[in-house]
Amino acid sequence: MPAQIDLKELHWLLDIVQCLDVGVVVLDRQCRIEVWNSFMENHSGLGPDQVHGRELFEVFPEIDRGWFRRKLDIALQLGTRAFSLWEQRPYLMRFENYRPITGEEDFMYQNITLLPLAAASGEAERVCLLVEDMTEVARLKRQLAEAGRVPPAP
């Protein structure tokens, strides 16, 4: 029998998710948003109450639906993580660069991880989408490329 989490423990676990400097979104099999942390709120300008229950593609129409659906389905079917690196696809959701003074990029470069989340039955029913800001890495790589020290970034 799995250990039960008391409410005090659940509260600090949720606090950790909110404080991470990484986007955390939990999606059901139909890509409806169930969890939306403060990173996502800060960068999208949309609060959890505005996105909860909505389809991810409705909130972010720029997402390539076919490509993302394939990634999500593979993660759910195989029960393994799926990834997308900024070098392959610069972003999933077009967030503005939030460093207006030092930022030289127009948008946030992102690494994406899809983590299958198993239900009590053991079957993956949801996916946790992690969004990591890679803008500074992309900027530095571009500067090195311009200086002739590394191959250019996409």
Can you summarize this structure?
Pfam families: PAS_4 (PF08448). The chain is an alpha+beta fold and 154 residues long.
Walk me through what this model shows.
- This protein has 154 residues and is an alpha+beta fold.
- The chain has a single domain, classed as 2-Layer Sandwich (Beta-Lactamase).
- Helix content is 35%, strand content 21%.
- The chain has a five-stranded antiparallel sheet.
- Strand 1 and strand 2 form a beta hairpin.
- The longest helix is centred in the middle third of the chain and has 14 residues.
- The protein is globular.
- It comes from Metapseudomonas furukawaii.
- GO terms for molecular function: kinase activity.
- Keywords: Kinase, Transferase.
Element layout with pairings:
Blueprint (H helix, E strand, L loop, with lengths): L6 H13 L3 E6 L4 E4 L1 H7 L3 H4 L4 H4 L5 H14 L3 E3 L25 E9 L5 E10 L1 H12 L8
Antiparallel strand pairs: 1-2, 1-5, 3-4, 4-5
Give keywords.
154 residues; alpha+beta; Beta-Lactamase; five-stranded antiparallel beta sheet; 6 helices; globular
Taking the sheet with the most strands, its summary is: 5 strands, antiparallel
In terms of structural class, how would the helical and strand content be classed?
A: alpha+beta
Overall average residue pLDDT = 86
Please name the fourth-level CATH homologous superfamily. PAS domain
**Assigned CATH architecture:** 2-Layer Sandwich
Order of helices and strands: HEEHHHHEEEH
Describe the strand arrangement of the main beta sheet, using strand numbers. 2-1-5-4-3
Shape summary: globular
